[in-house]
Design a protein that fits this description.
With about 525 residues, this protein is mainly alpha-helical. The chain has one domain: MetI-like (MetI-like fold, Orthogonal Bundle), CATH 1.10.3720.10. The protein has 26 helices and 2 strands. Strands 1-2 form a two-stranded antiparallel sheet. The longest helix has about 40 residues. The chain is globular, with a radius of gyration of 24 Å. The protein starts with a helix and ends with a helix.
């Protein structure tokens, strides 16, 4: 809240540090009169709406195909590696794949006879279509995971058997019974995806349009500008972006309610089958396309990281070399070390706080049965530039220069919602007979917690830790703003390099950003299996 307050005041031209001591609307007038504002606004709206809408649609289609229609463990096996690939690294690899000189166009060029890169715009296009596609490809697996976490709360098998006994087809029963329940249960994750799509900065910087950029990138440019008077304009832009996110959340809530009412209306008409349901089942195979791209992402980064020379007319590099790994060694080790330390401390801190909070609300010490979901999701629903900029101003007012502490706090703020997602259901559904038996044997609360309950839940805790660790590693703006640009991690290094032309160094840093959380996911997976 202090961060928001410290953003609201400069938005109305009150910034004593810059000798602005009176309130006015000048910053808002400057914002609205900026030549790039309305173009950036339109790009932001189209990107956020389209990417979120298609992510929801594809996630429902895939969920129907592989969870409801033909249950399979296939999704469980592929979701983890797909989620382990950070958005920014995926965007960089997407450029290496689909740019006019990218790997896929090199392959196509072999068949159509291209000897130079074609004069077409495939990435960084002015309509932000490449940015929208990257967001869809990355957010769809996340929404599928959120749906799968709700399976213990929804009686899938019984619902399907009852509707089948009444003569409904599988797809009709999914639409009429499952869809309204899923829409309600994953409402907040959808809002988080919407807020991220509207406000993302690092991915938009890498693969989005440049002139003009999206609104989040434009605000970030004003904040980073050496002209400090632009901070007022940036603050008003951050508040505008916050209002835009709130407006779209309201819009999606209204659309959700309309969708549910329409489904109920259709179901009352006794339509026991729905047209094109076989088409929807086949569309679920789009997950193979997402999986293929995820594999190609890793392959193209590996190839570029060891490339010395790679001509356009060659499918594979002409020559290989580890020279660029050696040149990047010092910066790479620094970025990896900082990212690992921040991720480890913020995730452990978040786990301690979240386990304590979930223990408190699920114990007899309180009548509350749940943590307020909206409060837990608040860091994901608010634009990062809206409160991180303000909190940075707040720290400067109090002459706070402990950058590492501020970065760890900011990372923990974004890690805890994902820990909450991972641990909430397992804590709520834990069989309390084990703890009661422990109490009957004169074991105290803490002995019961540390020697009975947590060991029984360690599989879920390992998974939550891996998820929280990966979330911390990919934080760009929290590291940049809280560290005031003086402390680098693998993510800030990679995003800063993304605007350069040396694909080999960019690929090295992107590959390492992927490998760091992926290694933690693999270790957590083995620990979970052993548990």
């Amino acid at each position: 809240m202090f961060g928001l307050l410290a953003t609201v005041l400069p938005a109305f031209s009150y910034f004593p540090a810059l000798n602005f001591n009176t309130f006015s609307f000048n910053a808002w007038f400057d914002l609205l009169q900026h030549p790039s504002f309305f173009s950036a606004f339109k790009l932001t709206v189209s990107t956020g709406f389209l990417s979120t809408s298609f992510s929801i649609l594809f996630s429902f289609i895939i969920f129907y195909r592989y969870v409801y229609f033909k249950p399979s463990r296939f999704l469980n096996k592929i979701l983890t590696p797909m989620l382990a690939i950070p958005h920014a690294a995926f965007a960089i690899a997407f450029i290496l794949l689909l740019s006019p000189s990218g790997w896929l166009l090199k392959i196509i060029g072999q068949f159509v006879g291209w000897v130079i890169p074609p004069n077409i715009v495939t990435v960084n296009d002015s309509y932000a279509l490449s940015l929208t596609l990257v967001l869809i490809l990355k957010e769809t697996p996340f929404l599928i995971l959120m749906m799968m976490t709700q399976l213990p709360n929804i009686p899938v098998k019984s619902n399907r058997l009852i509707t089948q006994s009444l003569g409904y087809s599988d797809f009709a029963s999914f639409v009429y019974i499952m869809l309204p329940q899923l829409l309600k249960n994953i409402r907040l994750p959808i809002y988080a995806v919407l807020a991220f799509s509207l406000t993302v900065v690092d991915v938009a910087q890498i693969i989005g349009p440049n002139a003009p950029p999206t609104l989040g990138v434009l605000i970030h440019q004003w904040i980073s500008n050496s002209d400090f008077t632009l901070r007022l304009q940036a603050a008003s832009g951050a508040i505008f972006l916050l209002l835009l996110v709130v407006s779209f959340i309201v819009l999606f809530y209204v659309l959700e309610q309309c969708c549910i009412k329409l489904i109920l209306l259709k179901s009352s008409a006794s339509k026991r089958s729905i047209m094109f349901e076989s088409v929807f089942a086949q569309l679920g195979k789009i997950i193979y396309f997402i999986l293929l791209l995820s594999i190609l992402v890793i392959v193209v980064l590996i190839l570029w990281s060891v490339t010395f020379r790679w001509g356009f007319t060659d499918i594979l590099p002409n020559s290989f070399s580890l020279k660029f790994w050696q040149k990047s060694q010092e910066a790479l080790l620094l970025g990896l070390k900082n990212a690992f330390i921040f991720a480890m401390i913020s995730t452990v801190l978040g786990l301690v706080l979240m386990v304590g909070a979930l223990e408190f609300v699920n114990s007899k010490k309180t009548n509350r049965k749940y943590l307020p979901k909206t409060l837990m999701y608040l860091p994901l629903l608010l634009p990062q530039v809206s409160f991180l900029f303000g909190f940075n101003v707040f720290l400067l007012w109090f002459d706070f220069h402990y950058d590492w502490v501020a970065i760890i706090w900011a990372h923990s703020l974004f890690v805890m919602p994902y820990l909450y997602i991972s641990l909430k259901s397992v804590f709520e559904k834990f069989d309390k007979r084990y703890t009661l038996q422990s109490y009957a044997l004169n074991r105290g609360y803490f002995k019961t917690l540390f020697f009975i309950k947590l060991p029984m839940l360690k599989g879920s805790i390992y998974t939550a830790f891996a998820l929280g660790f990966s979330v911390s590693v990919v934080q760009y703006l929290p590291t940049l703003y809280m560290g005031e640009g003086r402390i680098e991690t693998i993510t800030t290094q990679m995003v800063n390099m993304a605007s350069g032309s040396d694909y080999r160094r960019i690929a090295i840093f992107a590959l390492c950003q992927i490998l760091l959380p992926l290694i933690i996911f693999i270790v957590a997976s083995r620990k979970t299996r052993d548990a």
